[in-house]
Amino acid sequence: MRADGTVRFVRVSGKLQMTAAAVVGAVLLTWIGVLGWVLVAQMVAGAERNRLEQREAAVAAAEAQVAKYRNGIGGVAQELERRQDYLEKMIEGHAGDLPANAASTNPADATTQKADRAKISLANPAAGPDAGRFARIEARQLALIDKLTRLAEARSARAETAIRRVGLNPAMIAAADRKAMGGPLIRAGAAPADPRFVAFGRALERMSAMQSGLARIPNTLPASLEYISSGFGYRADPFDGEAAFHAGLDFRGPIGAPIYAAAAGTISFTGVRQGYGNCVEISHGNGLMTRYAHMSRIGAHLGDKVSAGAVIGQIGSTGRSTGPHLHFEVRINDRPVNPRPFLEANRDVFQKDRG
């Protein structure tokens, strides 16, 4: 070392040098150890962080799957609920047209459907039934739809057969029924997209039109007496014996005996017509009209809606008549046709399909 221009040398003993070297070595080893520990700790922490991140990602994926499943279940439940509403409204709207047990696919269905209704409630879709249970509910709904569609189609076919056998066109009857409609617009909601539900709705509409048309065909005896004193067509006139056309059937009976509407319809005339005396006419739609003549008493009013079998008057002998009887006519577009085929054609079919 240099001091005041004089260079001095310091001698360090070998022992001190070894001690210093040992101290430096120990410090280096300690630093290396600490550094190694820090590196190892960082590696362990990084691995743990990666594991946590992977676990969180797995949890997030699982939650997303659960949410997707819940949304899917909610969608299925909503569709089943909509189908159930549609079924109930359609069946309720045609309660008088379908058999009493039509809405059941087996004896236990009345209870099952109520249970199913609760199962598909949307109040808490996450707590609802699993996919397997939904599939069973859907299968029951589709089985019911198929059964009701077949019933409606079968009843429509029977009604069409009965209508054709009296010489009328079922298509015209159905068209007339669709024209005679009205009322406020109240949306019932869209029908399910499944083609089986669409076919069911159309089958019910067709059946309703045929049933309505069938109810307006005169096949109910207008008098309780089945004795016909004069038939339809040409005959010797009862007053002068000359050949004359008789436009209806004559039912002989006592004065005051009830006269019945031969079919459902609207009273279109009450009063006196030349030759007919006291007379009632009923419009049944589609150009079909029935006339009841020679009454002793008229028991209906213009515009009244009457059902088949309703009492509309009493037998008499007013007008051009030789004695108490009912003169009964069926007219299509004001052209007289023979009433006998209407009164005799497949009475069992008419009664079955009206009931």
Description:
Keywords: Membrane, Transmembrane, Transmembrane helix. This is M23 family metallopeptidase. GO terms for molecular function: metalloendopeptidase activity. InterPro entries: Cell_wall_metabolism_enzyme, Dup_hybrid_motif, M23ase_b-sheet_dom. Helix 1 runs parallel beside helix 3 (about 130-165), helix 3 (about 130-165) runs parallel beside helix 5 (about 195-215) and helix 4 (about 170-180) crosses helix 5 (about 195-215). This protein is rod-shaped. A hairpin with a 3-residue loop joins strand 8 and strand 9 (about 275-285). It has a domain at about 230-355: Glucose Permease (Domain IIA) (Distorted Sandwich), CATH 2.70.70. It has 7 helices and 15 strands. With about 350 residues, the protein is of the alpha+beta class. It has helices at about 15-95, 110-120, 130-165, 170-180, 195-215, 340-345, 345-355; strands at about 1-5, 5, 230, 235, 245, 250, 260, 265-275, 275-285, 290-295, 295-300, 305, 310-315, 325-330, 335. Residues about 105-130, about 180-190 and about 350-355 have low confidence and may be disordered. Strands 3, 6, 8, 9, 10, 12, 14 and 15 form an 8-stranded antiparallel sheet that branches. Strands 7-13-11 form a 3-stranded antiparallel sheet, with no helix packed on it. The termini are far apart. It is about 50% helix and about 20% strand.
